[in-house]
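Researcher: Here's the sequence for the chain we discussed earlier.
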Amino acid sequence: MAGKNRTGPRRAGAKRAPGVADPGRAAPRRSRRERASLGKQARQSVPLAAHADPGPSDGRDPIGLVLDQADSRVPDLVPIRHGRMLVSPFTFFRGAAAPMAADLAGTPTAGLRVQLCGDAHLSNFGIFASPERSLVFDVNDFDETLPGPFEWDVKRLAASLAVAGRENGFSVKARRKIVLSAVASYREAMRDFAAQPLMKVWYAHLSGDDIVTEMRSRMPDKRVRMVESMLAKARTRDSMQAVGKLTSVDDGHRSIRSDPPSVVPIEEVFPDHRADQIYELLGGVLSRYRRSMQSSRRRLLEQFRLEQVARKVVGVGSVGTRAWIILLDAGDGDEPLFLQAKEAQVSVLAPYCGRSRYANEGERVVAGQHLIQAESDIFLGWTHATGPDGVDRDFYVRQLRDWKFSLPVEQMRPLGMRYYAAICGWTLARGHARSGDRIAIAAYLGKSDRFDQAVADFAEAYADRTERDYTKFQQAVSSGRAQARTGV
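Model: Thanks. This is the structure I predict for it:
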């Protein structure tokens, strides 16, 4: 059915419809009626059923795209990344944002652009602390953020639900209900946001209390209590908890505990360089980072002094990019703060959506995060650094932990994943409504479930593709084409 639309639907690289502007740039002033008409016109050229199309499969080299990313990463960490991707089709999917970006570039798009998360799989949503010290639910990974077709985030989320559902042993019927829950929630939320004033959309957020209240009407008491326990645990995941886990005190001096390859103090990473030279360099890096923050938060950070820095292996897809944890203290060793500086490389979307308008890739990440998230970490900022190897790299900085917590996907049951999918869909729509033309998108999606059904078809087809790609990745490791280190 989708194949019949191959000559009609617009691809991502095609010229955008008149009046469709990139997020963050001034859009032509149009009435609500004109904006709704724009969305309806897009539906005529790109039928909703076209979104079932997973894109061409000929000529793909997904493993090559994954391996090409090693060129810009820390060589001795790349096998760890591959080992984590090797665990299951779902972990492979998490690390395979680049192949999926290439695939999505071959699918139909309506030409309605938003600020994309860029990697909106279900494990990249979660709980964290707002500046007002309440728990909020939101997208929490923006390494690949860039303006692009709104459908790409929706399809990345939908496919992740299908792949995770298979891994959890859910039936075809259960998986489809889960994906439909996410996409219907996205569509209905976008229609709601289209009817609301922009300021109300901007202030919309989902709190931990909102989640529990809603769950009580949908879920068994046992599952509600489990989530309440997880939310309580999330409140303990802060800098003090990280300090207890990652540091030790000797002769009254606190230092980061070496645990290679997961955590390695910077003095061990660069043993051929004098420590004082390294920390002099880091002082300049932190100074540039402070300048990226608003003045009140810059003043707060100035009260802390640098104690130590270590390299830390994080995530699945991010492994191999340079990630540092920074121990600071505002007192006599009793007011610690952990920041994380994470390397920001060019987005995997850039070859298909165009390079970022920001010269610094860290600023790209921070700007995208501020645009999509309802509330962001008070220490969020960006910088750049010239390493001991002489290479200049961009970074973004945030707290290492601030009540950050993701629900364990492997423990979800069909009903729980359906609810989780719905709140992810709502959250994604809220981010897109803040950054794109919510009225045009809502008009394009319409009242029926045709878009939902098409994306559900896409998700199952892409889950099939992911399993085939995962098998190819296993073969690449077995043949020696890819090096993998497991259990780390």
